[in-house]
């Protein structure tokens, strides 16, 4: 089970985007949050940010699509070279078909769940995905407080994944810092998105290493 730290660039200094990316070159993936002001009440950016990121870093990119109708848009993020494309279970019209299309385009596939969304309808389909992203805040904004109630889902999922032998990463996103990374790791999580906790620190690279080490020690 590989531990991965994915810094979210949502609240990085966009005027220094290239330097910000270089300051996290020890990360496992760069997490790019795409928001359409429909699925979530915020608007961020689209494909051009992936293209810009690819020119500035060798670290693989994961797109987290907080958008309506991912069936229409997700494929273009795979084609743009994202290693992983994650779309929301609540937004997809035909999630299994979309997952197969993304894999066909050469990407890994993540399925995301808001904090109060049920994972149960998908438990017979674990092998169609590479990762489940369980949101630990309501999606839309960085800097929110971690919702510990969500960890009952990650615990259940970890048990099922380990029993089945299927390779599925379990990721959390929202409010991850030195404390919550430990709680989440203990609850079976192995992929962690961290936005403000990394980018408000003076030493971004150092913080990524600290979060990874804490997760490893508590897995
Ligand atoms: C929120 C985004 C997150 C966000 C995380 O909807 O999906 O990726 O940037 O930010 P922090 O780590 O500050 O909660
Ligand atoms: Zn995200």
Structural account:
There is one protein chain. The chain is of the alpha/beta class and 219 residues long. Helix content is 34%, strand content 19%. It has an eight-stranded parallel sheet. α3 packs parallel to α4 and α6 (180-186) runs parallel beside α8. D-xylitol-5-phosphate binds next to β2, β8 and α7.
The proportion of residues forming helix, as a percent range, comes to: 25-40%
Compute the separation of the termini in Å. Answer: 9 Å
Helix-strand sequence: EHEHEHEHEEHEHEHH
Helix count, DSSP H or I runs of 4 or more residues: 8
Identify the overall geometry.
globular
Q: Strand tally, please?
A: 8
Bound molecules: D-xylitol-5-phosphate, zinc ion
Task: Please state the CA-atom Rg, rounded to the nearest Å.
Answer: 16 Å
Widest sheet, order of strands: 1-8-7-6-5-4-3-2
Sequence stretches where pLDDT stays below 50 over 5 or more residues: none
Secondary structure class reads alpha/beta
Overall average residue pLDDT: 98
Largest sheet: 8 strands, parallel
Can you give keywords for this protein?
single chain; 219 residues; 8 helices; globular; binds D-xylitol-5-phosphate; binds zinc ion; Aldolase_TIM
Task: Give the SSE layout.
Layout: E1 4-7, H1 17-22, E2 30-35, H2 47-56, E3 61-66, H3 70-79, E4 84-88, H4 95-104, E5 108-113, E6 131-135, H5 151-164, E7 169-173, H6 180-186, E8 191-194, H7 196-199, H8 204-217
Parallel strand pairs: 1-8, 2-3, 3-4, 4-5, 5-6, 6-7, 7-8
Helix pairs in contact: 3-4, 6-8
């Amino acid at each position: 089970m590989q531990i991965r730290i994915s810094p979210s660039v949502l609240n990085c200094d966009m005027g220094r985007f290239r330097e910000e990316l270089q300051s996290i070159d020890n990360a496992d993936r760069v997490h790019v949050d795409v928001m359409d002001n429909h699925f979530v009440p915020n608007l961020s950016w689209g494909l051009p940010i992936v293209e810009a990121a690819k020119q500035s870093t060798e670290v693989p990119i994961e797109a987290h699509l907080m958008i309506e109708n991912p069936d229409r848009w997700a494929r273009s993020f795979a084609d743009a070279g994202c290693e992983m494309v994650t779309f929301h279970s609540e937004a997809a019209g035909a999630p299994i078909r979309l997952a197969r299309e993304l894999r066909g385009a050469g990407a890994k596939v993540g399925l995301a769940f808001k904090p109060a969304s049920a994972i149960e309808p998908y438990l017979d389909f674990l092998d169609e995905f590479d990762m489940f992203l369980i949101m630990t805040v309501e999606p839309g904004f960085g800097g929110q407080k971690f919702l510990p109630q969500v960890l009952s889902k990650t615990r259940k999922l970890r048990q099922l994944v380990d029993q089945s032998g299927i390779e599925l990463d379990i990721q959390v996103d929202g409010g991850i810092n030195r404390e919550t990374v430990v709680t989440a790791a203990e609850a079976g999580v192995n992929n962690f998105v961290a936005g403000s906790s990394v980018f408000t620190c003076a030493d971004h690279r150092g913080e990524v290493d600290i979060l990874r080490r804490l997760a490893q020690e508590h897995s």
